[in-house]
Amino acid sequence: MADSACREMIIKAIIICLLKLAFSYSFRSCVEIPDSNHKIFRCVKCHESDITTIVSDVFPTATNLTVSRNNITYIQGQSFHHLFNLTSLVLDANYIVNIHKDAFNNLQKLQTLNLSWNYISSLHRDVFSDLHHLTKLLLGNNNLTNIDMFLFSNLTNLRIIDLCRNHLKNFSALVESISNLSRLIHLDLSFNKLTTLHHSTRLPNSLAKLILSNNNLHKLGCDKSFLKYVEVLDLSKNTLLSSKTFQGLNLEYIKNLHLSFTKVSAGKLLNYTNIQPRHIDFSGLNLKDHALTLLCFHLRDHQIPKMILQSNSIRVLNKNTFCNCANITDEMDLSQNAMKTTGCLKFLHCQKQLETLMIEHNHLTKLKSCKKSKKVYSLKSLSYRYNRILQVNGYAFSNTPKLTNLELNINIIAYLDHKALNGLKDLVTLRLDNNLLTDIYNDTFKDLTSLKTLNLRNNHIAVIFNYTFQYLSNLTILDLGGNKITQMKPHAFDGLKSLTNLYLDRNHLKEIDGMLFGRLHATLQVLDLQANHIMYSTEHTDSPFINMSRLLDLKLDAQEPNGINLLPHAFFRGLISLNSLYLTKNHIIGFGAETFDDLKSLETLTLDNSCVGIAQLKPGIFKNLRKLKTLSMVNMGITSFSKEVFGNLTGLKLLHLNRNAMMSLDISLLDNLTNLTYVDLRSCPLSCGCQNSELQNWTLSSKRLQFPYLFNITCQDHPGSFFHNFDTNVCYLDIALYLFSSTFTFTILLSLIPLLYVRLYWKFKYGYYVFRSWFGEQWRRLKDQEEKYKYDAFISYNSADEDWVMEQLLPNLEGSSFRLCLHHRDFELGRDIVDNIVAAVYGSRKTICVVSQSFLRSEWCSLEIQLASYRLFQEMQDVLLLVFLEPIPERQLSTYHRMRKVMLKKTYLQWPGSNCSDPNSAKELFWNQLKRALRSSNTRSQEKQNDQRRHDKEGTDKEEREYFMNHTPINDEVHYLMP
Ligand SMILES: *[C@@H]1O[C@H](CO)[C@@H](O)[C@H](O)[C@H]1NC(C)=O
Ligand SMILES: *[C@@H]1O[C@H](CO)[C@@H](O)[C@H](O)[C@H]1NC(C)=O
Ligand SMILES: *[C@@H]1O[C@H](CO)[C@@H](O)[C@H](O)[C@H]1NC(C)=O
């Protein structure tokens, strides 16, 4: 007995060893980013709260780890101790409140640590002490009220600290904590509760960027030279801050000072400090009308590259405003003001060098003709985004003839005059998207001969007339997506000699006009026809792409309302350069085997949701796609694959098969896919039976292949259990034996000779008796078919259960005149015990095994079950009845595979324990069932038995049904296990 348990332990240990030798290649909560060489891992939204559990199986090769949007509240000590090569650790958007002081121990190489968007209110002073290489520390959006003076003391490489959106009050303590960080460049303290910049130490000289916006600063209160080395200083939205507090401040190196929505006066600031006017952002300082003129006067001898005047409530700009002013050389930003008209940019007439003008987020409604206005030749880029422009009149840009970039998007332009864009010969980019345009005329773009990008997305254009774009011979990108185009005239695209990208997605096109697109064949590389109304009802349509030998990217996904339906025969013929093809959401009725034949360059194929009902991919369908790297077939209703489907996909790296209908996947199908690194099998109804045992083993032991979220995949046929750990040991009898005999024989021989001796002894003995009984049975059958059994049942039990047998079983069954064989009573004295058992099993109509924990541990009982199940399988003699005296955990049973094999043939009986609600009637029921089972014939076929079982269930009373419900038989599948 002890010997048997010991043997089992050794076998288990060896199996565990084997599994550990191979990499387990899926992660409980994480995914390795494909192609990242085991370096980049994401563990996002895994509903797990224990950080050590989440990261426990991440490979030590990891360099970048993101653990975001989980339910983590605490970071334990040594949480990442095995991830010593991490350079980036992102823990944002969790519920972290506390962090153990040793949490980040060992992360010597860490460069980036992101703890933003948590609930951290304090940090132990040693928590970052190992992070010598940290350069970026993000702690924004937490509840920090204080920073320990020594918190950053070891982080001598730190360059960026983000502490925005906390509750920090004490600036002085903060400065102390960072004062030795000689590489610190960037400190963000916005959205805290600082009231002054009072300090006891100096800032590191390296600190160039200090963000203090949205605090409660009412005065600075710092030394005059405290900010001397700062280059970017943001003090905006400290609404109480006034000019006076800047008096005498040394702002020598400032390049960018933001003061919007403070009480600071620009003029006074210039008087009080040594700041250069060109380094001030003049936004939000109430600079309009007279104040603006005054400021200008102040600046009149200066050169200002960027004049930023956002949010100053400016309504109108006088044509002289910027005359007695600085020379603005580069950009003027007037966004977020209240201008109703541009006045043909008369206010720029004194500015001869300005190149960029932005008037976004104002109240412009109309762009009038500026034909007669003085020209602003310097202007190259003009943006009127986010206004309320409804109408653009002819010659609206005649005053700015040198524009190269014009942004009119996000307005409500419904009327764009034929001549609106007249004269813009240098224009390269024109944004007209997100307006209300319905018509474009064939002379609208007449002068735009330099245009390269034309964006007309999200308008209401319905028809593209002939020659609309005829002058745009340099155009490379034409975006017409999101319109209402139903019709494109045959010459609509004439003249587009350089077009590479054509976006026509989300329109109402009903077909693909091969002639029309054919005209673009020499240059076109990207064609987006997503979400139109393309549908075919016959297979006999010529390929519309026959000439498109340069096309690289074709999107045909999500045709409205119900998809393409019938993909015409050889539909993609001619697309020999195509790299990516998107056919998602198309309800295609079957793909012909030749569908993708021409796509020899294809690297990405997306067929998600593209089928109706159950799809069966034709053998050879991907035969030419040797360059395919990504194949996505999510939710296609695929039930199985034949080997020829994947045959030639030798370049395939990523395979997405999630949400399909297959219950198993034959891994030999994937044998040829030597470059495969990632197979997504989520949400497939995978069965946890032996047909998937190889798949399971493979998913867990493959080194090159990742199966994302494998540990979340459940068993379709065993609700509540998981695919990754269903018991496949029994399926591996042969392999295991092979492993034993080949790989481990030597070891075992050396170390386990005594055990092996016992093991072989029993094997021989079993084999011998099994053979002998088989022979005996054959002989008996021939000789005496009619021979009566000596007993109705042989009772096999362990001596520990003798009381129950003698007190319950015997009286009940012998009382009903069954003849029982009990070993202590009926075995022949002096005969070998094994012979006795054989004789008993064959001399009884049934063998009843009384199963308990002690029974499972007994060597003899295994032999009895073995013999009885031998009769069951080899002779179709159904002789075994199992009576469970106590609930036996599934796991334990599964190690007794033969018993499980029996259980799929038989209903087992559970002895109702004393904790049963109505023990007496349950026991009565038990005896009735046992007797019925004893009386039943031995030679029923399996089907009959099942029928009988079902019949029994339905035919008996409610009580019995309930009894059955509470004692569900073990699932009907075969598990084998090493003996
Ligand atoms: C850690 O990084 C070093 C240097 O880049 C490398 O040599 C080593 O193999 C890495 N260790 C692991 C476990 O990836
Ligand atoms: C997060 O964890 C807390 C306890 O740690 C639990 O009460 C809460 O329900 C969890 N939330 C989610 C979304 O799992
Ligand atoms: C990985 O982390 C390093 C160090 O922070 C960073 O420079 C790099 O961009 C990260 N790589 C990716 C792919 O996120």
From TrEMBL:
PROSITE patterns: LRR (PS51450), TIR (PS50104)
Source taxonomy: Eukaryota, Metazoa, Chordata, Craniata, Vertebrata
Biased amino acid composition, Basic and acidic residues: 941-963
SMART domains: LRR_SD22 (SM00365), LRR_TYP (SM00369), TIR (SM00255)
Protein name: Toll-like receptor 13
Region span, Disordered: 936-963
UniProt GO molecular function: signaling receptor activity
Recorded GO CC terms: plasma membrane
UniProt source species: Cyprinus carpio
